[in-house]
Amino acid sequence: MTTDDVLAEVGPRLRRIRKDREVTLAALSEATGISVSTLSRLESGLRRPSLELLLPIAQAHQVPLDELVGAPPVGDPRVRAKPITRQGRTLYPLTRQPGGLQAYKVVEPQRTAEPDPRIHEGYEWLYVLSGRLRLVLGQHDVVLSAGEAAEFDTRVPHWFGSTGEGPVEFLSLFGPQGERMHVRARPASAK
Q1: Residue 1 — pLDDT band, cuts 50, 70, 90?
Q2: Do 173 and 103 meet the contact criterion of CB atoms below 8 Å apart?
Q3: Do the beta carbons of residue 56 and residue 72 sit within 8 Å?
Q4: CA-to-CA distance for 34 and 27, rounded, in angstroms?
Q5: For a pLDDT cut of 70, what percent of the chain falls above it?
Q6: For residues 94 and 103, is the Cβ–Cβ distance under 8 A?
Q7: Nearest to 134 by CA among 159, 97, 109, 157
Q8: In what order do the strands lie in the sheet with 140-145?
Q9: Which of these, 22, 40, 145, 159, could form a disulfide with 115 (CB 3.0-4.6 Å)?
Q10: Which phi and psi (to 5°) does residue 158 adopt?
């Protein structure tokens, strides 16, 4: 399909969306600041659609811009990243793009470990899927069960892992700054 073919379908699509929502050209004009005559020419194909015209229309109808232009699907949305194993913990990446918000499903085996709090820039969210997750955050030492969540500034010394009672599965989300190298919150000899 050529660009001209795609653009030729925008007008009828705009009309159909407006009619489905039972909105008049006058009401859409008032909501978008675009004249009734311009809207009419867009819908009839006499005016070529532009981003300056389509963005306010998409906002007024509360639909993605893709819906107005009939953008093709972007392909398979499934994330197929390979699991990463670090120090016995398995991380399943749930995001494809590096940087930005990162999400992981984490599987922590049953084990007893001495907390070793770390700090780094960023903000983190944890959500327990199954099992029990021990979270040491500053002066707090709490256990989260399935269905519970925690959020915290990662500049506060923190550590999380198995309670030793069984494996735990949880979701971990953090911003781009969370990818930086972890540094110790206290010297190793201060255990």
Answers
A1: low
A2: yes
A3: no
A4: 10
A5: 88
A6: yes
A7: 159
A8: 140-145, 132-137, 158-162, 118-119, 183-184
A9: 159
A10: -145, 155
Q: Report how far apart, in Å, the C-alpha atoms of 65 and of each of 5, 13, 56, 92 are.
A: 17, 12, 10, 32
Within 8 A by CB and 6+ apart from 86, the residues are: none
The answer to whether the pTM exceeds 0.85 is no
| Cβ neighbours, 10 Å, residue 88 | 12
Q: How many residues does the chain have?
A: 191
- Mean pLDDT over all residues of the chain? 86
**Secondary structure (3-state) at 84:** strand
Of the chain, the percentage scoring pLDDT greater than 90 comes to: 54
> How far apart (Å, rounded) are the C-alpha atoms in residues 102 and 173?
6
8 Å CB contact between 173 and 101: yes
> Which residue matches tokens 């929502």?
21
Give the Cα separation of 49 and 54 in Å (integer). 7
CA–CA dist 187, 77 (Å, integer): 44
